[in-house]
């Protein structure tokens, strides 16, 4: 989604703004721009496509000035053109915006009636026009911005810059995060702290509804009611090296390879000598009758896997929902229900809205997040960090397996609290869990054969994934990874569901990837594989040595993983699913880390 940066500095702003935008590239964008004020003169440069195009524009037509704002735009209202790129300018004001102004059509009609015509298709231009309208009524920049903010409906992070004001920036946050970084002489603004990491680690996050008047010497923050407020300044540890590819060709490759390490970090955070320790205030599953798990995309598939664990291990009924459906379905939330939201970014608009719907209704609201400063974390009663470290690749990989690990630990805790797992059985499961990073290292050793198979997959137009039991959500995740980065059409089905329709798709051109460890359900999956092979379908079996041996003849290709305790298989088998998608995308030459049309953090609904 869109990225915002800003600076009131002691040096030229343009190089900082472009560099900071580069650090936000991972969020996904299709145009970019910056504006500066130089000796009172407001000016801007914008370009469509990658940041290199903006840099080129700045080489040909440089921008001077030590105060500036910048933006990477992920188009919502209006095509990705120069005209629609931010910053938007109206008279004496320039604005960058992340989010959607829902009442922009009404505002635009009002402004047109006052003779202020719009030039672009965007909702953001309306914010600039409205502020210029207020300036033309004689208001100061501060009062004009305040008056404008009071009229806006929807979600936004905004930064304003004004002609004639070399030492003023006004920013606001409602629904989209905004971080202010500072040192002795300079102030920085960013959609997330990653953008500001090389400049400062002292970060103040605006709260929901806050807006701030910033000069180099003073940051004055007000809440939605207009009262002056203090927000805490935190020291954020974002090492520049963490957002470096570390010699890998893509962030996604690096993040896949990091999984044994980050899973160890997650295990260390939750497992103690004596068992499982949750962060305060914890959860007592003896007082709960039901769980409601809500998320989007990959995080939703983590929830779907967790349902198998909570129900089979802890005998705890679980509802799972895609957040965009849940929020408008208005489901009843029975007493003694914990509502749990899973999100890597912690900013996904639909998940956040679903969380707000549950507040005050559910017995407790818990969040499984990677970004612990995020809105979803801040609004939850219990925060369960996944310890994946910064994830830059748009396709979620290490965050998925870390989400799974945290959810599995929670399911084991539920099983123990509810008397379905003895201390001895729990200890045995935890030993198996502790061995997972070692098994992951072995699974990563399949990279070479996975890469060779991927070259064949890259020729396919359609790919099917099959899985049974807790491997079914993983099949869905495998198909999502494949389609989002390789652009190959991929679908997933529960193995037993194939003959109820999808088998009509089978022919020799459609590879069918079967995720099936040699577990209690394996024989049933083999029957389904034979149904495919009998119709000329090509099976790529991902299994262990025994599984591959027992599958019999006729399998097209196989990928062999180490044997694993069945309850851990969905986590281990995520790795070959990621590797197959990654290498297929590499073979096709797509933009792996920033696939077309996708954004890392989906802050609009
Ligand atoms: C897919 C992917 C997305 C996200 C989804 C939710 O690889 O990354 O499907 O999982 O947009 O994002 P978060 O977890 O940030 O809420």
UniProtKB/TrEMBL annotation:
- Where the record annotates domain Glutamine amidotransferase type-2, the positions are 2-217
* Coiled coil ranges: none
Q: Does the keyword Transferase apply?
A: yes
The GO annotation for biological process reads: amino sugar biosynthetic process; carbohydrate metabolic process; fructose 6-phosphate metabolic process; protein N-linked glycosylation; UDP-N-acetylglucosamine metabolic process
- Active site feature: 2, 600
Give the enzyme's EC designation: 2.6.1.16
The primary location reported for this protein is cytoplasm
A GO molecular-function annotation:
glutamine-fructose-6-phosphate transaminase (isomerizing) activity
Which residue spans traverse the membrane? none
Keywords, in A-Z order: Aminotransferase, Cytoplasm, Glutamine amidotransferase, Repeat, Transferase
**Where does the UniProt annotation place the signal sequence?**
none
SIS domain residues: 277-420, 453-595
The protein's name: Glutamine--fructose-6-phosphate aminotransferase [isomerizing]
Report the source organism.
Answer: Roseisalinus antarcticus
Give the source lineage, highest ranks first: Bacteria, Pseudomonadati, Pseudomonadota, Alphaproteobacteria, Rhodobacterales
């Amino acid at each position: 989604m869109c990225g915002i940066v800003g600076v009131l500095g002691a040096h030229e702003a343009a190089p900082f703004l472009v560099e900071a935008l580069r650090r936000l590239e991972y969020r996904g964008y299709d145009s970019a721009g910056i504006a500066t004020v130089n000796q009172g003169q407001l000016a801007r440069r914008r370009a469509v496509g990658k940041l290199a195009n903006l840099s080129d524009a700045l080489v040909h037509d440089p921008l001077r000035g030590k105060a500036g704002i910048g933006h990477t735009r992920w188009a919502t209202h209006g095509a990705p053109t120069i005209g629609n790129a931010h910053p938007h300018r109206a008279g004496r004001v320039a604005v960058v915006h992340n989010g959607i102004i829902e009442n922009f059509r009404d505002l635009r009609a009002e402004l047109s009636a006052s003779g202020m015509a719009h030039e672009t298709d965007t909702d953001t231009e309306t914010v600039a026009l409205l502020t210029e309208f207020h300036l033309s009524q004689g208001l100061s920049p501060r009062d004009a911005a305040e008056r404008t903010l009071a009229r806006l409906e929807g979600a936004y992070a905004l930064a304003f810059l004004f002609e004639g004001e070399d030492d003023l920036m006004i920013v606001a946050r409602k629904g989209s995060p905004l971080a202010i970084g500072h040192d002795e002489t300079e102030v920085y603004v960013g959609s997330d702290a990653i953008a500001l990491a090389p400049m400062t680690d002292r970060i103040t996050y605006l709260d929901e509804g806050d807006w701030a008047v910033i000069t180099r010497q003073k940051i004055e923050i007000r809440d939605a009611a207009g009262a002056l407020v203090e927000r805490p300044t935190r020291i954020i540890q974002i090492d520049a090296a963490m957002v470096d590819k570390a010699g890998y060709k893509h962030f996604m490759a690096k993040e896949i390879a990091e999984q044994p390490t980050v899973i160890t970090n997650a295990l260390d955070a939750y497992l103690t000598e004596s068992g499982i320790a949750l962060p305060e205030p914890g959860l007592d599953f003896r007082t709960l009758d039901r769980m409601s798990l809500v998320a989007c995309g990959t995080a939703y598939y983590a929830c779907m896997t967790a349902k198998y664990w909570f129900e089979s291990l802890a005998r705890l009924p679980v509802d799972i929902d895609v957040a965009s459906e849940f929020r408008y379905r208005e489901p009843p939330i029975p007493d003694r229900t914990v509502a749990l939201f899973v999100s890597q970014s912690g900013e996904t608009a639909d998940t956040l809205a679903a969380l707000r719907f549950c507040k005050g209704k559910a017995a407790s609201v818990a969040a499984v997040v990677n970004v612990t400063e995020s809105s979803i974390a801040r609004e939850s009663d219990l925060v369960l960090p996944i310890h994946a470290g910064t994830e830059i690749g748009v396709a979620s990989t290490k965050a998925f397996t870390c989400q799974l690990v945290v959810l599995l630990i929670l399911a084991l805790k539920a099983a123990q609290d509810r008397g379905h797992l003895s201390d001895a059985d729990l200890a045995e499961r935890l030993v198996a869990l502790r061995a997972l990073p070692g098994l992951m290292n072995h699974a990563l050793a399949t990279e070479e054969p996975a890469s060779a198979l991927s070259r064949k997959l890259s020729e396919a137009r359609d790919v099917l994934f099959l899985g049974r039991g807790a491997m079914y959500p993983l099949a869905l995740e495998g198909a999502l990874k494949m389609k989002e980065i390789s652009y190959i059409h991929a679908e997933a089905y529960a193995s037993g569901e194939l003959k109820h329709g999808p088998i009509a798709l089978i022919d020799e051109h459609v590879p069918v990837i079967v995720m099936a460890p040699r577990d209690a359900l394996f024989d049933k999956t083999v029957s389904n594989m034979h149904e495919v092979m009998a119709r000329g379908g090509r099976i790529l079996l991902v299994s262990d040595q025994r599984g591959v041996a027992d599958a019999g003849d006729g399998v097209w290709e196989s990928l062999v993983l180490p044997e694993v305790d069945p309850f851990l298989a969905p986590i281990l088998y995520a790795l070959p699913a990621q590797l197959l998608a990654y290498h297929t995308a590499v073979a096709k030459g797509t933009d792996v880390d920033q696939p077309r049309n996708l954004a890392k953090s989906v802050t609009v609904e």
